[in-house]
Structure formats: C-alpha cells, structure tokens
Amino acid sequence: MRILIIEDDQEASAYLAKGLKEAGHTVDQAGNGTDGLFLATTERYDAMVVDRMLPGVDGLTIVQTIRGAGNTTPVLILSALGKVDDRVKGLKAGGDDYLVKPYAFAELLARIEALGRRTSASQPETRLKVEDLEMDLLARTVNRSGQDIDLQPREFRLLEYLMRHAGQVVTRTMLLENVWEYHFDPQTNLIDVHISRLRQKVDKDFDQPLIHTVRGAGYTLRAQR
Amino acid sequence: MRILIIEDDQEASAYLAKGLKEAGHTVDQAGNGTDGLFLATTERYDAMVVDRMLPGVDGLTIVQTIRGAGNTTPVLILSALGKVDDRVKGLKAGGDDYLVKPYAFAELLARIEALGRRTSASQPETRLKVEDLEMDLLARTVNRSGQDIDLQPREFRLLEYLMRHAGQVVTRTMLLENVWEYHFDPQTNLIDVHISRLRQKVDKDFDQPLIHTVRGAGYTLRAQR
DNA sequence: CCTCGATGATCAGAATACGCATGGGGTGCC
DNA sequence: GGCACCCCATGCGTATTCTGATCATCGAGG
Predict the structure, then answer these.
(1) Which of A42, A144, A224, B60 would staple B93 via disulfide (CB 3.0–4.6 Å)?
(2) Whether A152 CB is under 7 Å from strand D
(3) pLDDT on residue A122
(4) Are residues B105 and B33 in the same domain?
C-alpha cells in the first residue's frame, strides 16, 4: 500500500514511517499542512495518516479540502484531543477513523490496513485499461495495442460500462439501465446490435477477442475463454 | 443504510437500535451469536455492529466466519476490553473498526456512517463457497479446488440454489419453483437430467462427491455421507 | 437371500430459445 | 437537404433445454 503521513513532529513521523515500511508499505511524508495538501492532491495513495494539529493548514481542513475535491482516499486522523466531540468532528469532516495519542503502533497498523483493504479502488478514474485496450475518458478516445479505434457515442458508453465491469458478467438489464437509461425492456435486439458493431471495431482485427457472450446471462469483457 | 446489531445485552441493543433508527437507518437485531451469524450470512447489510462477548458464538468468531465466507460487510466491534492487544485482535479478525465500552452514541454513529460511506457501492454478496467449491456470481464462474468448471445457464442456477441451501435437503418442488419457476409438476424427469449433468461436471473428477441424493426427498449439497 | 416394484440415473434426438449479422427507415443536427 | 447515428425487423445458425426410452439401484417383504 502507498501511504501518506502528514505530521509535523519529526520524531513521531519518522517512527511511524519506519514501522509502516517494515510492514511492507510505501510511505511518503509531509511535515506541514501545505506540503501535505499538495501531495494528497497530486499523488495517489491507498491511505493517509493525518495529524490533527498542524502548522499552516490544519488537519481537519486538509481532510475537508480533499473530500471536497472528490478524493475518497481513506484517512486516519491522529490527535492528542480525545474528547468525544473532537472525535465526532474528525469523522464528520470526512475522516474514516480517529486515533488518540499516545497510541500503540500495532493498533495504528491494524487500523490503517483495515481502511486500505476496503478501498483499493476509489479515485475518479480518467483512464480505463483492460488488457491491451485503453480508454481515455477525458479525450474520449479508445485504442487497442496503440491502434486508434473510432466509436460512436453509444458505443463509447457501452464499452465504458463493459470496461468498468471487466471480468464480471454484465446483464442486458444492467446495460439498458446504465447505458440507455431505459427502465423497461424494449423487446428488441437493440443491445445485440450495438454489441455486434462494437465487436467489429474492438475485436475484429485482433487475435484475442475481449467481448464474450455469456449465453442466457449477458456479456463480459475479459481476456480468455 | 441497513445495519445489523449483534448484542446480548437487551438494553444496550435497544438503545443502539433506537438511535440508529432515528438517524434514518434500518436495523435488525440479534441477541446471541447463533442468530447473529444466521442473519449475517442470509441477509444483506451495509454495516454490522458486533459485541465482542456473546453467549454461544463469540463476536470475533462471527467476524472471522463471515469473512471466510467472502462477505466483506463492514463490521464495528464493540467491547469492554480496551487493551491494545484486544483491539489489534479485533481488527485482525477482520473487523473494520473497534470501539470500547462505554462509548458515546454520537461517536458510534459517526464511525458506522464512516464505514458505510466507504462501501455503499459494495457488491451484494458476490461469492458462494461450499467446501472446495466456489462460485463467483458476478463473473458467473465456478471452480473446484482451483479448477474451472464450465456450466450452462440452467446448471448454474441449479448449482447456485444448491449452494445457497448447502447442508439442507432441497426437494424437487423447491427446485421447480425456484430454479425453473414452474408452479406445477412437469411429470418428466427434468430435474434428474440436470442433476446428472451437474454431477458430471462438479463431482466426476473429484474424490469427494458433493451432490447427494436423498431418496424419496430430494438432493443435498454437502461434504460426506 | 432373492424378487419385485419404485425411484433415480443416463443417453440421444427433437424442440426450442437465443444470439448474430445485415439492411432499411426514422430522427435530429449541421 | 444531407449526414450521422440510432433503432427495429428479419432470417439464419447454433447452443441449450427438454422429452421419452432404457438401464441401474434401492429397499421392503416373502
């Protein structure tokens, strides 16, 4: 796991970093709120440990700010303040857990790992990738093995949905609801047609097909079988 | 959110339930470990509050059991034991958070909501497991001892039903109603045929058969006998 | 211990449902 | 008006399901 520590007490920070590294994680450290906020917004972490009292930008503010920006990385707030109200404030600000100093390292480790376990996938992604197929959501482009693929709007949405659920079987109902926003069954082969067209573009010129039919169930996007 | 409370102290449980309901959640309660485990495995919750000390099945055991079954519902463990070692044990067992009694309700609420927030998008029970046989409902895949098994749609539904009722005897009528949605008896050996085919795929290449005939009653999925 | 009826297992062909490709018509946008 | 794009209908090929016949097994009763 990649973990960011924002803590002004040098010694405490070093101690924490050492322990987390020994447990097999990758650690970045920031010694004040400003640097911390910068790292938190520019890098991707699986979890963050944030001290509540910080020079510059305060811990709670950091959490509120990154949450406001849509970042959902789990945050463990560290504080000397143990009163219930303080804890509630910490959690309300968007913290996922709250630990009072002094704490035992074993507990912090257990909690951080519990948090991380829960969310390995959270950031609002801008690129999707499945095998050699890549989609850039911002640029609205798709390419496979470097070769550009030109898709119509509906085909794009369809492929996006399939990619977001790669490995899972996606039912027709799911597609109607999420790609077409139909909340009923149109009783036509609408989906089949679009899948067919998508296949022409995505799988036709390649050895390994990615779109697979799961008879009686739906479709799935994945490597083999 | 749907929340399950497993707590033997009637008063504490009622108090908790009341508070959570007032905060807009739906609450189920279990007064002992056995009932709790039953609800936890048969129903779907967004979060669970589990007392550590319980008559019958103990709190940690419950958490370990549901985790072993692939259930990832967030769990908040409640305990009178506040020592660091106890907390670490609680989190290691698969708990997502740990709160020591006496606690303030506001804090518990904040923590539960922090846990729920994190996984509201979590999948509704996605894997079934019986002995060495595993089924992934999302990917629609089945494997036994790591070896993939390829099933047709009806066979898949049939096996799913058997797995969801593992250990119980499943009658032909139950199968007709739930797997075929027939509400009458087709007067053919329809079911026998499909069970036969399923056996070929599930039991044929393995020492230990899992599908057993219960003469005059139906079928059952379990280890021996 | 053997026999016989009832219950369950297996097999293969027939019936069915499902998914695919294609072309045409409609709609809305430049 | 022309162009994209999207949706619908058709017919075809095939995977899946169901049926009915035959064979195996079980257990009660003589």
Answers:
(1) B60
(2) yes
(3) 40
(4) yes
Tokens of A150: 């030109």
**Domain housing B167:** 127-221
A194 inside 8 A of chain B by CB: no
- A63 versus B71: the higher-pLDDT residue is A63
pLDDT at B121: 45
Q: How far is CA A30 from CA A13, A71, A81, A113, A154, in A?
A: 9, 18, 21, 20, 44
Q: How far is B50 from chain A (nearest CA, A)?
A: 16
Alpha-helical regions (H) of chain A: 10-22, 33-42, 59-68, 84-92, 105-117, 153-164, 172-175, 190-202
Percent of chain A with pLDDT over 70: 94
CATH code (residue A166) = 1.10.10.10
Query: Any atom of strand D under 7 A from CB of B194?
Result: yes
DSSP letters along B144-188, please? ETTEEE---HHHHHHHHHHHHTTTSEEEHHHHIIIII--SS--SS
Residue in this structure with the two tokens 């520590």, named with its chain if needed: A5
Separation of alpha carbons B203 and B208, rounded Å: 7
Q: Across-strand partners of B213?
A: B219
CA A148 to chain centre: 26
pLDDT score for B148? 92
What's the whole-number mean pLDDT along residues A187-210?
A: 93
Last-in-domain residue among A117, A135, A168: A117
- Which residues, in sequence order, are bridge partners of residue A3? A27, A47
